[in-house]
Amino acid sequence: MDQILQHFINAMVLGSTYALLGIGLTIIFGIMRVVNFAHGELYTLGAYTAYGMVTLINLDFFSSILVAALIGMLIGALIEYVFLRRKDLKNIDEVMLIMIGIMIIMQNMELMIWGGVAKIIPTPFSQDPISMGDISISPTRVFVFCIAAVLLVIFYLGIERTRFGLAIRATFQDQDAARIVGVNVKRIYTVTFALGSAMAAVAGALLAPMFVATPLMGDLASLKAFAIVILGGLGSLGGAALGGFLLAFIEEFGASYISSAYRDAFGFLVIIVVMLFRPQGLFAAKERVG
């Protein structure tokens, strides 16, 4: 029983960051219909930003996460304004090529700046785990879960309880109707891409101290983000959050009770099954963006 509870705790920590990653991708796709292939590189950007702030500028780890979020938001806004603002987003092929190009450019810039050697992000937390009987968890993981959970709650309240969140939801449901009632859809696009990018960057800054930062870490992050979105249902913000936790549980328990060598494969096997029997996703939204 203690072993199961230990895996449950590990999955909850990982799932909270997966949820941030999935929601960031979902909100961009749901509102703009843009398949953001650069999402994983924004995740990598957040990890390297945190590393650079802590090791090169001697900024404290907590502030480095905030800086990662701000830089992710800025880069996301620039991508939308410079590369997408004047494009016809309905031209899916052109937009996909643009996003793939941005992904390649960002990945090579990260490799050029930081090199191919993995970087370890130092944290102020003790290396000694917090033990409760046979269950233990590192202070870093406790911090990561708490920050990710708080951000998910703030995002939910921002979308559901604020006037700007209402404008985002209106655009999400029907862009033409939103324009008629005075919503500045172009501004919503910019803010949406900035928010989605910031969430990816924060996920990278939070997860990197638990593992390592590498220039290619965004490849797997992108695959997992798309898997989360597909699992939760395209266009469903709640589904993306639940999909993130579900993917983490599948990986954690699959690696523990079947084989750790196939940890990343278990989630994708489940995705294939879901696509075969419920292609709209497990938690698909009833309404989709038109």
Automatic annotation (TrEMBL):
CDD domains given in the database record: TM_PBP1_LivH_like (cd06582)
Keywords: Amino-acid transport, Cell membrane, Membrane, Transmembrane, Transmembrane helix, Transport
Pfam families the UniProt entry points to: BPD_transp_2 (PF02653)
Cellular compartments per GO CC: plasma membrane
Keyword Nucleotidyltransferase included in the entry's annotation: no
InterPro entries for this protein: ABC_transp_permease, BCAA_transport_permease
Major localisation: membrane
Membrane-spanning parts: 12-35, 61-83, 95-121, 141-159, 188-213, 225-249, 261-278
Family: Belongs to the binding-protein-dependent transport system permease family. LivHM subfamily.
UniProt protein name: Branched-chain amino acid ABC transporter permease
